[in-house]
Amino acid sequence: MKARVYIMLKTGVLDPQGEAVRHALGSLGFDGVNSVRQGKVIELDLKDGTTEATINDMCERLLANTVIESYRVEIL
């Protein structure tokens, strides 16, 4: 069983890495980019029968900093 976890900074949290990417895109001539939010994707190869609740617990306890990040789990 595989799962994919998408982690993004919450709305209102400054994203300096995303801002650096936006600035670099502008420097390369891509002027139409108003903002960039950068996140991360974690793919998990799990034992069959692992519940979504267990994956959420992994996110809450380790994978995402839930104070400043939100996450979404996709079972593949």
UniProtKB/TrEMBL annotation:
Q: Kindly state which reaction or reactions the protein catalyses.
A: N(2)-formyl-N(1)-(5-phospho-beta-D-ribosyl)glycinamide + L-glutamine + ATP + H2O = 2-formamido-N(1)-(5-O-phospho-beta-D-ribosyl)acetamidine + L-glutamate + ADP + phosphate + H(+)
Taking the record's annotation, the residue ranges forming a coiled coil are none
Question: Per the UniProt record, which EC number(s) apply here?
Answer: 6.3.5.3
GO BP, sorted A to Z: 'de novo' IMP biosynthetic process
What domain of life does the native source organism fall in? Bacteria
Q: Which family does it belong to?
A: Belongs to the PurS family.
Q: Which PANTHER family match?
A: PHOSPHORIBOSYLFORMYLGLYCINAMIDINE SYNTHASE SUBUNIT PURS
Q: Which NCBIfam families match?
A: phosphoribosylformylglycinamidine synthase subunit PurS (TIGR00302), PRK05974.1 (NF004630)
Q: How does it assemble?
A: Part of the FGAM synthase complex composed of 1 PurL, 1 PurQ and 2 PurS subunits.
Q: What is this protein called?
A: Phosphoribosylformylglycinamidine synthase subunit PurS
Q: Which species is listed as the source?
A: Pelagivirga sediminicola
